[in-house]
Amino acid sequence: MTLTDWNPILGRLTLQSLDPLKAVFDPTVNNFIASGAADAVVVGALLGVVLMTKYRLWKPLWNNWLTTVDHKRIGVMYIVLALVMLVRGVVEAVLMRAQQADGLHGGFLSADHFAQLFSTHGTIMIFFMAMPFLTGLINIVVPLQIGARDVSFPMLNSVSLGLTVAGAALVMISLVLGDFSTGGWTGYPPYTEAAFQPGVGPDYWIWSLGIAGLGSTLTGLNFIVTIYKERAPGMKFMHMPMFTWTALCTAILLVFAMPPLTVCAVMLALDRYAGFHFFTNALGGNMMNFANMLWLFGHPEVYILILPAFGVFSEIVSTFSGKRIYGYASLVLATMCIAVLSFTVWLHHFFTMGQDADVNAAFGIATMLIGIPTGVKIFDWLATIYRGRLQFTVPMVYMLSFMMLFVIGGLTGIILANPTVDFQVHNTLFLVAHFHNMLIPGLLFGMLAGYNYWFPKVFGFRLNEKWGHVSAYSWTIGFVLAFFPLYAVGLMGMTRRTVSYTNPAFQPWFQIALAGGFFVLFALFSMGMQLYVSIRDRDLLEAGADDPWNARTLEWATPSPVPAYNFAIVPTVDSRDAYAMAKASGAAYMSPARFNNIHLPGKTSLGVVTAVGGTALGFGLVWHMWWLAILSLVLVVAAFLARTFTEDEGVTIPSGIARRDFDAWMKRIRPEGWSDDTAPEMPGLETAQPMEHAE
Amino acid sequence: MKTENASSREAYLHDLRGYQTGLLLAVLLTVVPFGLVAWGGLSYVTAMSVVAVLAIVQIVVHVRYFLHVDLSPERRDDLHLILFSALLLAIMVAGSIWILVNLQTRMMMPM
Amino acid sequence: MTTEVLKPSRGYALIAENDVHHHDHGEKALSGFWLFMMSDLIIFGLFFATYLTTLNKMAIAGGPTPHDLFELKGAAMETAFLLASSFTFGLSSLAMKYDLGTSKVVGWLVVTLLLGAGFLFFEVSEFSRMFAEGAVPQRSGFLSAFFGLVPLHGAHVTAGCLWLIVMLVQIRVFGLTDAVKSRLMRLALFWHFLDVIWIGIFSAVYLAGVAQ
Ligand code: HEM
Ligand SMILES: [Cu+2]
Questions:
Q1: Is the pLDDT assigned to residue A278 strictly greater than 70?
Q2: Out of A25-34, A275-284, A578-587, which region has the weakest mean confidence (pLDDT)?
Q3: What is the ipTM of this complex?
Q4: A398 and A285, same structural domain?
Q5: What CATH number labels C22-211?
Q6: Same domain, A258 and A340
Q7: A299 C-alpha to center of ligand 2: Å?
Q8: DSSP, residue by residue, A7-38
Q9: B-chain residue closest to C44, CA distance
Q10: For ligand 1, atom 40, which residue shows the shortest CA distance?
Q11: Cβ of A96 less than 6 Å from ligand 1
Q12: CA A538 to chain CA centroid, nearest Å
């Protein structure tokens, strides 16, 4: 990059950076796909703007969503983001599958474009699909499960969302302006150093991850404090639902595992922008330290991803078996063991880097140890199912498919944990098959199960079962077809991240995998259909949405959709599975003696400021538009400072409204012929005394 | 001084003494390692071991007297947090150094 | 006790008296800030680890060595300023806690600010001396790691000073309200935390470098 290419206003942005024009400059199939994707983003964005304007939705969008600090709405926005990014990630995945199905003849994509595809696919799936999805579920569910009115820092929550959105926006912009990194989701230098990739690609990677990573750290911090300090009166740690436990462990991992990512991204940025030598080939850089720090983050990250899914499955298995979860204490303990152990195994991602056999052995053994607590969980879930009264709802189909497939993925993981075996299959598609085997049946199925399970809680109507089943089965079949063949080609020696190959024996496997890709596309289509049909038939699906699954935990002890204030009266809890207990004892149908006024925090525009400012900051840094970077940073800081000089009055909801909502809800859920006067004498009434507030 | 009653004044003096003790110990724990290195009479390894130990002691002093995290029940949560963070920090730092130094020696690079 | 456990649980009860929120925002914010600092601690830890792995010939790459570069005098000055500032901040916190009057609180904060600025002055002059000797971060892996770690701490101190100025303005505007006090308590934590990090820096960077 010479100074002459640089323009003080546009930085290094030129006409050639416009991807929609790629096909015009050089019309090949490859470039048509690139330009088509760029056009799709532009057209999609424009269409959104036009529709919003046409239906006059800007104001409601601003008032009810963008400036809200309501954890449920913030959660919904996270999940919308995740679903949009899921579509992009899957489309890219199927493109790669199509390319490799024809890879024997070179396929239709350039090597560089293929490299961008796996880099964006991996980055998006991890950081902008999986992370927002689980953050969204945690946001929606955890405060309800612990009987809280909101998170501890509602405004910070909105800011975290803003940071995540800014990161995702940068990845989307990279489709339209300039190229993304070709360095994979791991971005290893020296390949991502300026000497090899002087363009904007790795910078997009650095800043999208860096900005979103800060958001995740803050989310983690917020939820640790929330779970520690906001639990309903009487709720002890060992009363908390499993999902809350896994959310707590994930939050702890976020606080401690995001820093290594931040550090290696910042160091790489210093190398690229300021000529430092952290990871360069020359002058004493050490690229092995990057691998070291990236995986110091990366391995805990996989548990950040999987633990909430474990939590979802724990809730689902007990609800749909109609039983208490088996081995609650062992599940809690296993979750905590996994969280701590996950910091001790990172080296298994680079067994082949050249360290001594005894170093490899130590980390190999530590890796195998993690299998133990995970195994405990599987057995607990099995024992919960045992003699349960199973209901094959959509979430349960995901659960069962998870149980079978995840064990296979776990076993291939134990195989990989053996350094000597890893030397054979490292960097092959065997590994790709393994981690997708954990991520799709584990993480993704967990998230989709949670989406089906809690949808009625948030929107007040259930999702259509038929299309739900179709999509759950299609995901399962699609996954098996798309990834089991990769175990085979991987063992045959097909390396990962490879655009084409010369061994004809690989081809049939890739063709099967492509078929799997089509099933996955169909699964995505069915999810769209499910949503469409459910919204169309929402009047029918409203019935029983207050507690559609006869669930056990507190998030169902309030009307669906949940009012802004969550609980008319925050419940005083005396046991685990509090809602199931309350339904059994009759307490769930009793009216409180009186209602209070409820105070809630007010709106804030800081989240939007962060999202826009963060995007502009990242964009300015990527394109070397220094004025934009400085300006947006200054404006964001100024906005935050200005906020500290104002007082948030909040809003007060009069007790009358709480009473009205409560009575309407009771009318819907009370058993036939119930009245407070004829209510049976409650057992355990000693808890019905006002108690000293915890803390 | 606005403190009306003696007990509050006593509490104030007690807290003040805490900061003074902290400062005194910190100065001591700084002067000694600086002095050792300036004097230069010890071997590198010995000097560094002493410096490392004194640094850790000084960190404990700061945490105790300036950050006021002690063994009392009110500060239990913070103490646990610090210990947990220290554990993870130790795993990460020691692990990184172990791995990278091992790699360097195997590439037969002079240390 | 045992009989109580044996009783069937009621699940929950809706008791309006228990649903009173003492909005102790300050305490929560303090806990959140502790977590933030521990996250930051890991960041520092990895910069330390990186620095320690560059103390070899390969990473020094023929450039200046720690022994060539570091001198005790500058490090001792910086240490003295930072430690003194930690103590004066403590005095300000005490004045706040025991209501000794806004002017005392502000006075000690101003002294702290000056000491912090003094620290930064010595640090910057140290860096400029190194630059003049050709010890720039672009010179070697070792110097990159040094200029990653030590200025990172310096940047934190700078942020702390700016925060302090903002707080002085807020005291001026609002007086010592609960919100302002709570922010000052967080700033105090931050300030003491930076002094703790500095113990690591003067030991592992300066003393180790000079002793070599
Ligand atoms: C939905 C079906 C999916 C398909 C068909 C698919 C397909 C692929 C393909 C073809 C690759 C490139 C393999 C190679 O290196 O040659 C890949 C890489 C990857 N995928 Fe997926 N994927 C899917 C879902 C997911 C999900 C749900 C996640 C994570 C939550 C994920 C995370 C990754 C990651 C991290 C990489 C590695 C990228 C890299 O090499 O840097 N994928 N996937
Ligand atoms: Cu791993």
A1: yes
A2: A25-34
A3: 0.94
A4: yes
A5: 1.20.120.80
A6: yes
A7: 4
A8: BTTTBT--GGGBGGGHHHHS--HHHHHHHHHH
A9: B89
A10: A184
A11: yes
A12: 27
